Amino acid sequence: MIIDCHGHFTTAPPALGEWRDRQIAALDALSSPSAAPDPAGPRIGDDELRESIEGNQLRLMDERGIDVTVFSPRASFMAHHIGDFTASSRWAEICNDLCHRVSRLYPERFVPAAMLPQSPGVDPATCLPELTRAVEELGAVAVNLNPDPSGGHWTAPPLTDRSWYPVYEKLAEYDIPAMVHVSTSCNPAFHTTGAHYLNADTTAFMQLLQGDLFADFPTLRLVIPHGGGAAPYHWGRFQGLAMALDKPPLEEHLMNNVFFDTCVYHQPGIDLLLDVVPTRNVLFASEMIGAVRSIDPKTGHHFDDTRRYIEAAGMSDADLTAVQERNARAVYPRLDALLTQQGR
């Protein structure tokens, strides 16, 4: 089995974006009440969902031999910097509901993960009701946690700050991981997917290195996407910084709790990731139809067809199986339980 731990609903029907546009327009104090969207949310039928999935993610999964995708709302759509907590909360509910519906339409192919209703300067504990609903009612096996709700201005405290602890406590209670994933950058100095995403991955790793979060939460699991940003490439730097900060070696300090995915879009990058990072800490992922949708002219294949890189990396059969399936089942226990229930 091949499990893709990093999928987003980037192809949602247009009605979703139209509803969001009306919500944003209604935030203007001078807007007319008629500008507000339907409080019940966008009207999207099952046939529209099928059309948005079958010609896109599902088609590519079939072509690439991917069995299951952990499916969450579109990362750039989270946009926590827009509006207040009330706006973010309703938006998160709508997006999470759609991913849940996709998982119900294709129960053996998609498993939901949830976005949280974060908002700049707002206590992260306000996310707990939606986190609870997502797990208990929607069957979410993970959440996306934005370390920078300000959208590229980094006004939030580091991930090791105690203000995040209520969220970690709930994650530990449910035994689900969080993918540390930022959203749209509203800072023109940081391109959203080319700079902000990768900066955030690297920043999150360094924040965790500086702190002692996992002493307080020994079972907490965090997935840093996009191959861990710059972390694998600068592993020696981080090892040296751990020594300078009087921290244990990275393998002891972080790597029982931190995992990287394989959303790295060329062979040398994947080879480096697999050579530097312990195999048990690497999870297969593609983030297909995401930031990079074009075809590599050197190979004739899509950049985000990461299975090709993994299988060309020269791993043993046991390590390949670990990266493509076993590691995800260990990091996402609720996913493993669901697959086991399905007889897989």
From TrEMBL:
Keywords: Lyase
Amidohydrolase-related domain residues: 3-333
Residues that span the membrane, as ranges: none
Classification via Pfam families: Amidohydro_2
InterPro entries in the record: ACMSD, Amidohydro-rel, Metal_Hydrolase
Keyword Electron transport annotated: no
Keyword match Coiled coil: no
PANTHER family: 2-AMINO-3-CARBOXYLMUCONATE-6-SEMIALDEHYDE DECARBOXYLASE (PTHR21240), ISO-OROTATE DECARBOXYLASE (EUROFUNG) (PTHR21240:SF28)
Protein name, per record: Amidohydrolase family protein
Species whose genome carries this gene: Streptomyces bluensis
Lineage: Bacteria, Bacillati, Actinomycetota, Actinomycetes, Kitasatosporales
